[in-house]
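Table S2 (continued). Query chain:
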Amino acid sequence: MKLTIDPYMFRHLSLRDMVRSVAEIGYEYIELSPREDFMPFFLHPRADRARVAELKSALRETGVQLSSLLPLYRWSGPDEDARQAAVRYWKRAIELAVELDCQVMNSEFNGRPERAAESEAQFWRSMEALLPIFEREGVTLHLEAHPDDFVEQNTPAVDLVRGINSSQVRYLYCAPHTFHLGDDVAAMLRYAGPLLAHVHIADSFNHKGSSGLRYIINPPGSTARIHQHLDIGQGEVPWDTFFGTLRELGFDGIATACVFAWEERARQSSAFMLEQIHTRLLAEPQSTDGALAAARG
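Corresponding output:
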């Protein structure tokens, strides 16, 4: 199993300093997510040979490795020009993964939930162009359902990944999206079963709890999807169930700490998450959800 970190809270640092920082905290793997000087959100990658060499040098110096590369593009959106541009961006991102000797990429389905059928058709058009490249290059793609994508729930997302019918495409379960994905964490993880290759680990509140008033959004009736990526114990994800089910399934993939909420305490948060994931996923701990809930007050 690879315990890794999404270093988004360290994106203001240079590539070299970012790698050094996560190494000092104790991580052995990095899931490189969008950053302006390498792979921006929704735009063509900026990395050239020199920037790739800088990152590879920092990885060699620290002994840290890339677990995965995480690009985000509008490859399933209903706008055809934007979709074609996203496919071009994907092709360059795959080239970067190959240059970095990174065999895994992960991303979101994208698209629009109010135009789900049209977005899915666009997704398949993009996959027709990209899947042969993933397979040729030996790069595996891990896909996650995300709030406000054309597929937001666990079961249809797993079914869609299954329908791609390629050993190069697997499923990613994102714990802070739990309350958008469905209601039963154990059942959702079991449904993914052998397709489950990757988990994102951060806490979040159940927006459906307390009569739907965990968050208040104005104007009333807004269709906005709300969640946050918090430290374990700061939200309501049932962690004993989550980690226990992963152990039951014999999960041996990528486990990524992906907290985004605490940039003012990025090091402390990242160190805490590493300790929690290591203890709760690789050991057989006593139940701690009650203690964490009590600590929250």
